[in-house]
Amino acid sequence: MPDDPDVTAPPEKSAISRIFINVAWLMGGKGFAAICSVIYLALMARGLGVKGFGHFSLIAGTGQALSAIAGFQTWRVVVRYGVEYVHHAQWDKFGRLVAICAIMDVVGAIGTCALAAILIYGFADALDLNPAYIDLAFYYCVASAWTLNSAMTGVLRTLDRFEAIAILEAIPLFGRLVAALIVWWIGPTVAGFLIGWALASLIGAALFWVEAWRRAPQALTLANLVGWRCGLQENPGIWRFLWVTYSGSTIDAATKQGPLLAVGALAGTRSAGLFRMASQLAQSLSKLSTTITRAVYPELARARVTADFVDFRRLAIRLSLMAGGAGLVVVLVALLFGRQILGLIGGDGFGNGAAVLVPLTIAASFDLASLAFEPVLHSTGHARLSLAARIAAVVVLGIGLFALAGHGATGAAWAVMISGLVCYVMMGAMALWALRHKVPVAPDDILEQGLSTGE
Questions:
Q1: Interatomic CA distance for residues 174 and 190, integer angstroms
Q2: CA-CA distance, 374 to 76, in Å (whole number)?
Q3: Distance (Å, rounded) from C-alpha 418 to C-alpha 362?
Q4: Cβ distance 301 to 80 under 8 Å?
Q5: pLDDT for the residue 193
Q6: What is the 3-state secondary structure (H, E, C) of 248-284?
Q7: Using CB atoms within 10 A of its CB, is residue 191 exposed (0-12), middle (13-18) or buried (19+)?
Q8: CA dihedral sign, ordered 420, 422, 425, 426
Q9: How far apart are CA 316 and CA 227, in angstroms?
Q10: What is the pLDDT of residue 91?
Q11: Confidence (pLDDT) at 32
Q12: pTM score, two decimals?
């Protein structure tokens, strides 16, 4: 029986051309998403004011942090192990791999709900949350926990279906915009905006599952779900890789959401609102980093399977140079137009956030400039090195937040910038070492060698 054309391996193209095509699809979605984001951010900021927006930011930030801490970046596992299965059309093995990752997503969601109950009902005062919002914050965190699409995103990335990802990622953002407009018309409230966000995210996650099944029906079957245990033997080292990526995502959550929660606890809700607004804009300016990383990760994993090591090294270096130039552009935009952008979107009350925006944008540019470092380390069997760099960065962040606590949101922003610099330097040095000294190994041995030896 011939394979479904939707699940056959993509035709051969150069890695760079595939990356540009994938980035083009993702940036199309991100461009639309950016427009939606700016509009609903402006509606919330102007409708709620600095303090109300601060409450919204603390609740949303808590939900994002808990989902990242208790969840797993299973898409990386699907891509890392699934590329070879797709390349050889081994759909049963691919399906069992996806089943393992989907089960881990569910485990993460349950863990998120448990953590939310402990944090929201036990430490709401420390976050400076209004008592009237405590129940709402818990329900929002529970809803966020069940926006499970990581494994299904991995399926679409492995199949090179970036055009589908672009559309699917735009849907919840468009939903947030529609919800924001409705809430604005009815009367802007923190509860209204949070409910709109949660519903849009849940719908978007459900559509990812539907699309993944539609694209790979031969793999995503009940038989493969029931036989997920066989996948553990078929994918040696999967648990170690899963835990390494989990640790990295947890640290990443601490780096991205920790400063916001620290500002709320140390400087109050208004400062948290200013920090969130500046952080949102900095992240918007650096969306290119996340977008390209999502396109780069499968290509570097594929290159380690299909290309010789010299070509793999050349690809990684070219990507790093391209990303460094993009990072400089991001910083210049923040320096020249940061205050005007903040004032235009949030109103006069947010104009003072320019002092927060600049260091956060510099930190985001470090993320952008280092977009190829982590995929290189993962693909060459040195996942633990990227984890070590992130651990060092989060330690520096904690020290910086403590040392600069008296400077409020601005101090927290500079702590984030210093932490980003440390991560960039360390991970860059490690990736350079891996590219210079890595001895090519068989694809199946990459993680086994790198993780078991601790290199």
A1: 19
A2: 11
A3: 9
A4: yes
A5: 93
A6: HHHHHHHHHHHHHHHHHHHHCHHHHHHHHHHHHHHHH
A7: middle
A8: negative
A9: 37
A10: 93
A11: 65
A12: 0.69
Q: CB-based burial of residue 66 (10 Å sphere; 0-12 exposed, 13-18 middle, 19+ buried)?
A: buried
Residue whose structure tokens are 């992240």: 283
Q: 3 in helix, strand or coil?
A: coil
Residue 45 tokens read as 């900021």
Q: Report H helices in 216-237.
A: 222-226, 228-234
pLDDT under 50 in the chain at which residues? 1-11, 439-455
Kindly state the DSSP code that residue 220 receives in the 8-state scheme. S
Encoded amino acid at 412, one letter: A
- The residue among 278, 253, 261 whose CA lies nearest residue 413 is 278
pLDDT in tens, 318-352: 666 666 666 677 778 777 777 777 777 777 667 66
Helix (H, G, I), strand (E, B) or coil at 12: coil
- What tokens were used for 139? 């329900």
Amino acid at 311: D
135: closest CA among 195, 178, 49? 195
Q: Are 95 and 224 in contact (CB under 8 A)?
A: yes
Round to whole Å and give the CA distance between 235 and 93: 9
Query: Rounded to whole angstroms, how far apart are CA atoms 136 and 142?
Result: 10
Q: How far is CA 250 from CA 216, 343, 358, 363, 397, in A?
A: 30, 33, 25, 18, 14
Half-sphere exposure of residue 86: CA atoms within 13 angstroms, side-chain side: 32
Question: Is 81 in contact with 138 (CB distance < 8 Å)?
Answer: no
Tokens (6 digits) for 338: 């940061």
| DSSP 3-state of 40 | helix
CB of 334 closer than 8 Å to CB of 194: no
Confidence (pLDDT) at 285: 59
Rounded-to-integer distance, Cα 341 and Cα 349, Å: 13
